[in-house]
Design goal:
This protein is mainly α. The protein is built from eleven helices and no strands. Helix 1 crosses helix 6 and helix 7 runs antiparallel to helix 10. The longest helix has 39 residues. The protein starts with a helix and ends in a 6-residue tail after the last helix.
Length: 275
Amino acid sequence: MATSHAHAGLPAASAEPSHFFSLFSESAAIAQVEMKKLLRDPTELFTRAVQPTLWLVVFGQVFSRVRGIPTGNVSYLAFMTPGILAQSVLFAAIFYGIAVIWERDLGIIHKLLVSPAHRASFVLGKAISSGFRGAIQCLIIYILALALRIQINWRLLPIIGVFAGVALGSAIFATFSLIIACIVKSRERFMGIGQVLTMPLFFASNAIYPLALMPRWLRIVALVNPLTYLVDALRGLMIAGGQSTHSMAADFALLGAIFVILAAIAARLYPTLVR
């Protein structure tokens, strides 16, 4: 009898691992499809490199001459480099949802939703793909930093940490973009909301100036802005002599929690796109 009870419990015990395996395999398949789109049209990667180049080469060189911005023991150009990387990630990911609206109009989402795949795998797959795009942005910034002779931390573990942070940040803003797309369901409204959100998120963060320079009300806004914690983590990892305000564990834990919450919301809202 004990043996039969033990065998009876095996399917229940193995159901959970198989559930997670199928979720991740489906997410990987969605991410692979998304990355194939990027490889077929890589011009997006070159156009995305223009904006951070202008910020670092023009804006950074000019404001490096301003002595009133406290940046600690690093130059202003080095101080703003992680912020420009985070900005590139934000600007690339925040408009990710418009592709989902296009897919709905083409009938692709209807076909995906009638498949037996988990709804969460669509969100996770797109988040993984966005993380890959963010990693490419990261590579571009490292090349620019090398060309401009910025004091970068070239040790292996911090570089891996920077790429992990960029992938996580990109996944957060792409998932947030998916939520917006599920709510507004219109390309025109989505573009309007995306344009309204990008600049406030960027300027209400520590990307190009320290939190200490902000008025109190803006500092409070910055503390609830996920971009602030992404920049903080990148600054501590990426810049030689750079210091983060919070601990690295706190930054990554908070970013991870934000992603889990947004992914859960996006997975719940995703089927509403076709309604």
